[in-house]
Amino acid sequence: MMKVCRRATFNCAHRLYRKDWSDEKNESVFGKCSNVNFHGHNYVMEVWISGTVNEETGYLIDLKIVKDLIKAEITDRFDHKNLNLDCEEFKNLNPTAENIAIVCWNLLRTKLDRAYGLRLKIWETENNIVEYDGID
Ligand code: NI
Questions:
Q1: How far apart are the CA of 38 and the centre of ligand 1, in A?
Q2: How would you classify the pairing of strands 2-14 and 39-51?
Q3: Domain 2-132 -> CATH class
Q4: Residues 122, 74: contact at Cβ < 8 Å?
Q5: Could you tell me the distance, in angstroms and rounded to a whole number, from the CA of residue 14 to the centre of ligand 1?
Q6: CA–centroid distance, residue 127 to ligand 1 (Å)
Q7: What are the tens digits of pLDDT across the range 8-18?
Q8: Which residues contact 134 (CB under 8 A, 6 or more apart)?
Q9: DSSP symbol at 39
Q10: Is beta strand 39-51 parallel, antiparallel or unpaired with respect to 117-123?
């Protein structure tokens, strides 16, 4: 099994909160991340594709395909957006790094050939990282 990776970055504003909780409860669970006027992150995403190397091309997958897929499905959709206010995907979903990983994985999985495995890793900050293998 071989794996290749394409890295991408995108910037978003968000607020962690649940509409069905009081401001006090949101504040106590999410702290500063629940700031009513939002805050931003420079997200770094690694998209790991697994599979076998094509004998003719020597590629597992042309990374240009992965680059274009990430642009179309992730960065064009989320970069410089307020996830809570601008993005349908998070209208009723708390935009934690975990949920962002799940949403991004599902968007990519739909468009990626089933011959490939898919794993995402997202840095929300330098020190806070999530990894998602998805459910195939
Ligand atoms: Ni945050």
A1: 8
A2: antiparallel
A3: alpha beta
A4: no
A5: 6
A6: 12
A7: 999 999 999 99
A8: 102, 105, 106, 109, 118, 119, 120
A9: E
A10: antiparallel
Instruction: Choose the weakest-confidence range: 5-14, 16-25, 74-83, 117-126.
Output: 16-25
pLDDT band at 111; cut points 50, 70, 90 = very high
Taking the C-alpha atoms of residue 103 and residue 113, their distance in angstroms, rounded to an integer, is 18
**Quick check: pTM over 0.85?**
yes
Tell me the one-letter amino acid at 92: N
> Separation of 35 CA from ligand 1 center, angstroms?
9
- What digits encode the pLDDT tens for the residues 50-106? 999 999 999 999 999 999 999 999 999 999 999 999 999 999 999 999 999 999 999
As annotated, the active-site residues are: 33, 80, 124
Both tokens assigned to 105: 């994985």
Count how many residues are written for the chain. 136
- How many whole angstroms separate alpha carbon 46 and alpha carbon 74? 12
Distance 133 CA to ligand 1 centre (A): 22
